[in-house]
Amino acid sequence: MKSDYIKTLLKSFALIAALTSPLSVFAHAILVKSQPEQNATLTASPKQIDVWFNDKVGGEYKAVAVIDSKGNRVDNKDVQQEILDGSHLYCTLPELPAGTYTVRYRVVSIDTHIVTGKFQFTIQP
Ligand SMILES: [Cu+2]
Fold it and tell me: How far is 75 from 89, CA to CA, in rounded Å?
């Protein structure tokens, strides 16, 4: 019957839409919040960097690095994932001099994709 054919066709489209939708359950992780915020101007060196994603991320291969304007890595290389909130990573910092810093992150999202990104913040003299 023709209507059965159309129903099947519609189901196929629905399936394709579900598989390709950014709202899929197995979503690609995106950064939703950070502390310091992107492009923040601070009056003192922050004690740590916090990043939050829209979903929990994998415990392996997680990385958060803070790079100074000369390209040197300045964080304490101690990235941690919050035990009760797998969407939250943080690392600590030594006392940093004034300058502009770049935070780089790299995580594996639930859909197994690798997600990388960066943002900057500035510490005023
Ligand atoms: Cu993805």
Answer: 14
pLDDT bucket at 76, cuts 50 / 70 / 90: very high
> Is the pLDDT assigned to residue 21 strictly greater than 80?
no
Choices 2.60.40.1220, 3.30.470.30, 2.40.160.10, 2.30.110.10: CATH for 26-123: 2.60.40.1220
Kindly report, residue by residue over 60-73, the tens digit of the pLDDT.
Answer: 899 999 999 999 99
CA 75 to ligand 1 centroid distance, Å: 27
Alpha helices in 21-67 (DSSP H): none
**Domains of the chain by residue range:** 26-123
Average pLDDT score, the chain? 89
Q: How far is the CA of 82 from the centre of ligand 1 (A)?
A: 21
